[in-house]
Design a protein that fits this description.
There is one protein chain. The protein is mainly α. The chain has 2 domains: 202 residues, MFS general substrate transporter like domains (Growth Hormone, Chain: A, Up-down Bundle); 218 residues, Growth Hormone, Chain: A (Up-down Bundle). Helix 1 packs parallel to helix 7. The N terminus and C terminus are likely disordered.
Length: 467
């Protein structure tokens, strides 16, 4: 008698494949995600470090408030213009080569900021830095879609986006410490640009050595792991293709007024974020005589508070589900903080901006489930990139306007009040977000268009960087 136990070969094979896939995912996360987080931190610091050296640039090259604001904002013009071409080239040339190119060129341009001599060169280098960085954020997202199963991407993207939060906290102390360096041949602010830009250049080498464009190129994955990952991603793609109607009217969706609403809301959020980011060190300086290192530590406080607030708001939104209400609440908190900041001295303004940061950072993370839930998934990635690009132009408008106001009125109070008004308008507009469009229909009926909806509050409240 045959006493062997009968088993289901397919089930056993499925278990082996699942274990192999899990092993593959663990290796990818250990090798890739820490590098991407560090790259994002460097990206953010090189983008905003001019806020800490503004008084040095004013003293050494005569940079006016208006020129500072315009140059700070020109970064986002270069970024917006070159983001789509950069993404096209990434898909053609491979992620490894193109992400390395992005890191290398932005590091070199960031280092070149050490040798800026006048306002014109300040404009050119800021615009060029934006053009060099263009494509980094969506390039990383694109990379993860080709290296991780769908179930793992949300967690991976959340870890990647944590780099923005970490950078907000450490940018001040790190930059402040570098500005304490003695003037040995170069000014301390020049050393700051050279060191922080140099880190990005070193990371470019790490990117080239540690990244592979596709899983099949990875020598650190076994053949079985490559097959398991490739099969899983292909099966997911086949299921998506099978569930799609033969035709979707992408142009109808792109012309939908809801897209304009999303762009306006995110533009409003970006206005407040970058208005605070580029002017907060100057406000702190006016509190009293402080070293650059002390200013850096003070600068970290609002961002630390906002990180805690983001998680609290995310938990509340998951529990109570009405996403529009939570976005509107966060925007109103930001509006109140910005308005209150105009009513007292610099210390009072600083405390008020700490309060405002709770609102505008929470609004940034709470916003993204709205377009994600609304959009047809077949064009969601492209439209979200459009919303991100147009919304980030707030990073141009806010500093340019603040610089103009300070140059001509001696105060940025008018700008703070303007940010408050725009945030209140965005809080109202967010309730005009209507029910999701049916996949089979590029339009929604009038009744649906008028009513707000309750998104599912899936907890995927991630802040897009704008970087």
């Amino acid at each position: 008698m045959n006493m062997s136990t009968s088993t289901d070969p397919s089930a056993d094979g499925g278990g082996v494949a699942a274990a192999t896939l899990a092993s593959c995912v663990r290796k990818i996360k250990r090798r890739v995600l820490p590098l991407f987080v560090i790259m994002f931190i460097a990206n953010y610091i090189d983008r905003v470090n001019i806020g800490f050296v503004r008084p040095h640039l004013a003293a050494d090259i005569g940079l006016s408030a208006a020129a500072y604001g315009l140059g700070a904002g020109l970064f986002f013009i270069g970024y917006a213009i070159f983001e789509v071409p950069s993404n096209i080239l990434l898909s053609r040339l491979g992620a490894r080569a193109w992400l390395t190119r992005i890191m290398l060129t932005w590091g070199v341009v960031a280092m070149a900021m050490a040798f800026v001599k006048n306002e014109e060169w300040f404009y050119v280098l800021r615009f060029t830095l934006g053009a060099a960085e263009a494509g980094f954020f969506p390039g990383v997202i694109w990379y993860l879609t080709r290296w991780l199963p769908a179930a793992e991407r949300g967690k991976a993207i959340a870890i990647f986006l944590s780099g923005s939060a970490l950078a907000s906290v450490i940018a001040g102390p790190v930059t402040g410490a570098l500005l304490q360096l003695p003037d040995t041949g170069l000014h301390s602010w020049q050393w700051m640009f050279l060191v922080e830009g140099g880190v990005s250049v070193v990371l470019a080498a790490a990117c080239w050595l540690l990244l592979d464009s596709l899983p099949r190129d990875a020598k650190w994955l076994s053949d079985a792991e490559k097959r398991a990952l490739s099969n899983n991603i292909q099966e997911e793609q086949d299921r998506r293709d099978a569930s799609r109607p033969e035709h979707v009217s992408s142009w109808t969706l792109l012309r939908d007024p809801q897209i304009a609403i999303f762009c306006f809301i995110y533009f409003s959020v970006s206005l407040t974020i970058y208005g605070a980011t580029f002017w907060l060190p100057s406000i702190i300086k006016k509190i009293g005589h402080m070293s650059d290192l002390t200013v850096g530590f003070y600068n970290s406080v609002p961002w630390l508070i906002s990180i805690v607030a983001m998680y609290i708001f995310a938990a509340l939104a998951r529990k109570y589900k009405y996403q529009q209400a939570w976005v509107a609440t966060a925007l109103l908190i930001a509006a109140a903080g910005m308005f209150i900041s105009t009513m007292g001295d610099s210390l009072f303004a600083y405390i008020a901006i700490c309060f405002a940061a709770v609102g505008f950072k929470a609004a940034s993370s709470l916003f993204w489930p709205l377009p994600q839930n609304f959009l047809d998934q077949r064009i969601a990635a492209a439209v979200i990139a459009l919303i991100n690009s147009l919304g980030n132009l707030g990073g141009f408008v806010a500093p340019a306007t603040f610089g103009f106001l300070e140059q001509h009125t001696g105060s940025i109070k008018g700008g703070m009040i303007g940010l408050s008004v725009v945030s209140v308008l965005a809080a109202i507009v967010v309730f005009f977000v209507r029910d999701p469009i049916s996949p089979n229909d590029g339009s929604a009926n009038a009744a649906d268009a008028a009513k707000p909806r309750k998104p599912n509050g899936n907890g995927a409240h991630l802040e897009a960087h704008s970087h």
